[in-house]
Design brief:
The complex is a heterotrimer of chains A (about 325), B (about 425) and C (about 290). Chain A has about 325 residues and is an all-alpha fold. Chain A is built from 13 helices and two strands, in the order ααββααααααααααα. Chain B contains 16 helices and 13 strands. The chains are: A mainly alpha (about 325), B alpha/beta (about 425), C mainly alpha (about 290).
């Protein structure tokens, strides 16, 4: 019971302090002369966040970048090794394959996740609100399942047992009903089929994420713009593509990019399902293994730096898009 | 804005007081992190409580959900526990620069502990002549599990020698009774570890102690004759068509803990499963219940026989404990958990499969005859080999898992796979 | 005319959705059935067999009993709540302010700061844990104020790590708010704080609610940050469940059962917040 009160006290205090910080900043800024206020005010809005991000993300990230040129011992002492970590990483026999895998993940997962999420969000918008709630919860459910359990259940789906033995794998059961022989799915490397099986898991997990955000966006499309389209005689698909989609485009893009980044960073699915065997390794899994299992901080951070470099085109595109959208608004 | 009244100031002040709490972990408190889970953790904590109460020390054991990850973060950040217990001791020596050598801990009776340990256990985690870690628990791997009921029905008898075992394998195949062996090495991110055990079994027997040690230390290559001989023996058992249902592809895809076919009745059943003492936890519930009630109709075990002319050795593993500091309470607790006293309290009633690494551990404590039998195998071992891959650097261990899986599943030739393992020593 | 077409599209939508939902539900149902089955059966036959003849099955609820009677579970539940609730509300508040600044205010370095924030999305946070923890410890050494080991430490870290995504999503949402609305309010003499609280925040409720759900979920299912920053004295639910898995993973059925106990909370949050995804908030404001 004491725990409960400590927790409760901490919860209330924490929220109160934060609210107080913003209240204080607002209070102070209103005491400033008009011109100074104009310059300072934006930083009141973003300042606390910049501080938070600076301390907890930017600074550690700079450390990571620095460490990618270092070798770190367990007691924290470092030695400068130049580009050796990058060279080591690139020299790994799996490197080329890993890059191809990563490219496949970012080419396939975001587009399918967003399409499916969008389809669900739009279709759910058409049905009664009771059905909508239930159906959306079903699509959302995978997100609430802890990762360990998700891994367990997908292993049951992809499981393989040799011919003549009872099959516990759903996919093999279906496959055999169709007349096939049981397959060890994760060992099928042709056309990167095993990688695609892993991607299905991430799509299953994140469609609910895309659906929730896109549904919120669709709901916020002003009714009168849709009404106007109907009056002009547009059919359902025209309304969706010509009226709804352009208005939710920024959200769709945001979902796309966040799923893309999620796909870039994927490691737990690979680690739990194949352990990177059968040419399914990805960059973030290498980070994880090198950092936590092998204790090669430098090499792990080199993988992180590669990820950061890979994100730059996305950043540039995103900022350009904002400029355009801003100008058009 | 009105809702943020002056009252919030008072709350903020309150919060500041909440945040200032005296630093925990005083002189008479000891924290232990380890990989024991479930019933084993319960039994361990119970023994720690009893010891702590008698000595005025508050001992807290915490199960790390993912030991490698969690201990690394804590140690790097300077928040190490007082004592850590490594499930794979190969990682332990990586931390030697922040660990206390046990030789320097005056209240730990190192000589006494070493004397009662099963030979081979004392030198597992030594570096520069100093001992950093010693075992707190043991498991035996050189065990072949079988179903006595199935053996009886088929008129088979337990093999005493390696030649007998080969003959038995052929009998099962020629009489079409089922499959001689149940082998699975799948284990998610650690797929392949069960295959390293097989290699270790035979390198230990063919090579004896000196070669075995040289091998796991990276000084004897996988391309050497001894290791090649061991691989041939393993391949003969695992990869000969008809020995394991589905062959190498199925071995790579089958979970290491899939025991159902050992107890099946149809023509798909398999007859023998080489696996560590912990496998009893993976038995089907009904079998497990019978086993716990000392009903051995369906559970039997024999020691994996050594090929003719080789050393009759036992392979096993265990958790090793090490100290991060030398304060008096830490030393006292370490001395207790390293001794043969650990396990004599509430451990076995919570977790009947617990094995002590001490030959002096009173075998009367083992209520289950099979556990007692296994303890006997361990205590009487002429040569004990600790799981070599668990002792190797983590990167080599992981490469062994991966490459043996590649070999068994047919993705690589034996040579390609073994060469890759040899090459991984450059990364360690 | 319109009414007929709408009804027809609603029916076909429903059919497609039900089909998709069945597909999506399949793995979860499988997990649920498996968590109720006896281990041997689960190893021998597929869980879908149970659907066809449920009576032939030995149902086994012992894994749920194990999970619920585990003595630390109550404490873990409180810890989880104490970590999750503030770690959901705080970043929401911070991010909404910042997103407002990035969307409606003009200042130097706006695009620079923003692209840095997007870039930070890609950084694997596991790598940041050690530097942050060291920072807390050196802060404690200098000031005597203990941060690490308190719930507040986990809030800070969770809030910070959530910031890039939260700002990104909220800014994208706020971009769709017509500029005319904001201009109109400015003409009426409203300050930016008033515009934020009275206009933008209410309009952004659907996006805020969506993000709140995700953040709640992520924090609820996280164990690493809670373990590293709050410590082992007060383990969160996920950590307790994971620890049940034990050394050799023999206890995964307890974990399956545990995850159903655990997922009930975020699912309730989802149900609770779903009503904020209502149509017409912007529409009403425009008129």
């Amino acid at each position: 019971m004491k725990d409960l009160f400590t927790a409760l006290e901490a919860v209330i205090a924490g929220i109160a302090i934060t609210a107080f910080i913003y209240w204080l900043l607002n209070f102070l800024i209103h005491r400033l002369p008009e011109r100074a206020k104009k310059i300072v005010e934006p930083y009141v809005f973003i300042g606390p966040v910049l501080l938070l991000i600076g301390l907890f993300i930017v600074w550690p990230t700079l450390q990571s970048i620095r460490l990618s040129f270092m070798e770190e011992a367990i007691d924290g002492s470092t030695t400068w090794v130049g580009l050796q970590n990058f060279k080591d990483l690139i020299a790994e026999d799996y490197f080329a394959n890993m890059v191809i895998n990563n490219l496949m993940w970012i080419a396939i997962v975001p587009i399918l996740t967003v399409s499916i999420g969008l389809a669900i969000a739009q279709l759910a918008n058409n049905v009664g609100s009771r059905q909508e709630k239930i159906l959306k919860s079903i699509f959302f459910m995978p997100m609430t399942i802890s990762f360990v359990s998700a891994a367990v259940i997908w292993r049951y789906i992809y499981a393989y047992a040799p011919e003549g033995q009872d099959q516990v794998g759903l996919l093999n059961t279906i496959w055999m009903k169709l007349g096939g022989d049981p397959q060890a799915w994760f060992q099928i490397e042709a056309l990167k089929f095993n990688n695609i099986l892993l991607m299905v898991i991430l799509i299953w997990l994140s469609a609910g994420y895309a659906m929730v955000l896109l549904s919120a966006a669709i709901k916020s499309v002003p009714e009168d713009t849709i009404e106007a389209g109907r009056v002009d005689g547009a059919n359902t698909s025209q309304i969706f593509f010509k009226i709804i989609l352009p208005q939710i485009w920024p959200t769709a893009l945001a979902v796309f990019i966040t799923v893309l980044i999620g796909a870039m960073k994927v490691f737990d699915i690979v680690l739990a399902m194949t352990g990177g065997n059968y040419n399914t390794t990805v960059l973030a899994q290498t980070f994880y293994l090198e950092y936590f299992s092998y204790g090669n901080t430098g090499k792990a951070m080199a993988a992180v730096v590669l990820l950061i470099l890979a994100i730059i085109p996305v950043m540039v595109y995103q900022v350009r898009h904002y400029r355009k959208f801003e100008a058009a608004r | 804005m009105k809702k943020f009244s002056i009252a919030s100031l008072a709350v903020a002040a309150l919060a500041a007081t909440v945040a200032i709490v005296p630093s925990a972990n005083a002189a008479d408190e000891v924290t232990i992190y380890g990989g024991f889970g479930g019933d084993q953790a319960k039994g361990f904590q119970a023994e720690l409580d009893a010891f702590g109460a008698a000595n005025g020390i508050k001992i807290t054991y915490t199960t790390l959900a993912s030991y490698d990850t969690d201990i690394r973060v804590k140690v790097k950040a300077g928040q190490a526990p007082n004592i850590g217990m490594w499930p794979q001791p190969g990682g332990l020596l990586e931390y030697s620069s922040v660990l206390e050598p046990i030789d320097g801990l005056k209240s730990v009776d190192l000589a006494g502990i070493k004397k009662t340990l099963v030979p081979g256990w004392a030198g597992l985690a030594t570096k520069g002549g100093k001992t950093y870690g010693l075992p707190v628990s043991a498991n035996v791997k050189s065990l072949v599990w079988y179903n006595p009921a199935a053996f009886k029905a088929a008129g088979l008898s337990v093999p005493k020698t390696d030649a007998d075992m080969t003959k038995l394998t052929n009998t099962i195949k020629s009489k079409k009774l089922g499959y001689p062996w149940c082998i699975g090495i799948e284990s998610g991110g650690a797929t392949g570890w069960a295959a390293t055990d097989w290699m270790e079994e035979y390198v230990l027997r063919y090579g004896g102690e000196a070669q075995y040690t040289a091998w796991w230390k990276g000084k004897l290559a996988w391309s050497s004759p001894t290791v090649q001989k061991a691989a041939k023996k393993f391949a003969e058992i695992a990869l000969t068509p008809g020995n394991v249902n589905g062959g190498g592809k199925a071995i790579a895809a089958t979970g290491f803990g899939a025991t159902a076919n050992l107890f099946a009745t149809g023509s798909n059943k398999c007859f023998m499963m080489r696996q560590g003492s912990f496998i009893t936890d993976f038995f089907p519930d009904a079998i497990k219940a019978a086993y716990k009630a000392n009903d051995f109709t369906n559970v039997g075990v024999f020691k994996l026989p050594a090929p003719a002319g080789t050393t009759d050795a036992v392979l096993g593993g265990g958790d090793l404990a090490a100290a991060f500091d030398d304060k008096a309470a830490t030393q006292k607790v370490l001395n207790f958990i390293l001794s043969d006293k650990l396990g004599q309290g509430a451990m076995l009633s919570n977790y009947p499969s617990y094995l002590s690494a001490h030959k002096t551990f009173p075998s009367a404590g083992y209520k289950n005859p099979i556990t007692k039998n296994i303890a006997g195998i361990l205590a009487s071992a002429k040569l004990f080999g600790f799981d070599g891959s668990d002792l190797a650097p983590a990167v080599v261990n992981a490469t062994e898992w991966k490459e043996l899986t590649n070999w068994i599943s047919g993705k690589k030739t034996q040579k390609q796979a073994f060469d890759a393992i040899d090459a991984s020593w450059n990364k360690a | 005319m319109i009414g007929v077409e709408k009804r027809r599209s609603s029916l076909s939508s429903l059919i497609v959705l039900i089909f998709l939902a069945a597909l999506w539900l399949l793995p979860t149902v499988g997990l649920f059935i498996t968590s109720l089955r006896e281990k041997t059966e689960a190893q021998r036959t597929g869980w879908w067999d149970v659907i066809f003849n449920p009576l032939s099955q030995d149902w086994d609820i012992s894994s749920y009993a194990t999970v619920l009677t585990e003595k630390n579970l109550g404490t873990s539940f409180i810890s989880s709540m104490a970590v999750t609730v503030p770690a959901t509300i705080l970043p929401l508040l911070f991010a909404a302010y910042a997103a407002f600044g990035f969307t409606f205010l003009k200042f130097r370095g706006r695009e620079f700061f923003f692209s840095v924030i997007i870039g930070l999305l890609v950084v694997p946070l596991q790598g940041a844990l050690v530097p942050v923890l060291r920072m807390f410890i050196s802060f404690t050494d200098k000031t005597g104020i203990e941060i690490s080991g308190q719930y507040a430490a986990a809030w800070f870290v969770h809030s910070a790590f959530a910031m890039p995504l939260a700002i990104y999503i909220l800014r994208n949402y706020m971009m769709t708010i017509p500029n005319s609305l904001i201009e109109a309010a400015r003409v009426d003499g409203a300050s930016n704080f008033t515009i934020f609280w009275r206009l933008v925040l209410p309009i952004s409720v659907p996006a805020l609610a969506s993000f709140a759900i995700f953040q709640f979920l992520w924090v609820w299912n996280d164990y690493l940050i809670a373990f590293v920053f709050v410590g082992n004295e007060r383990p969160v639910l996920t950590y307790t469940l994971l620890a049940m898995l034990g050394q050799y993973g023999e206890g995964w059925q307890a974990v399956a059962a545990g995850s159903f106990v655990s997922l009930s909370v975020p699912l309730l949050v989802f149900f609770g917040l779903q009503r904020y995804f209502v149509r017409g908030l912007t529409a009403g404001a425009v008129k």
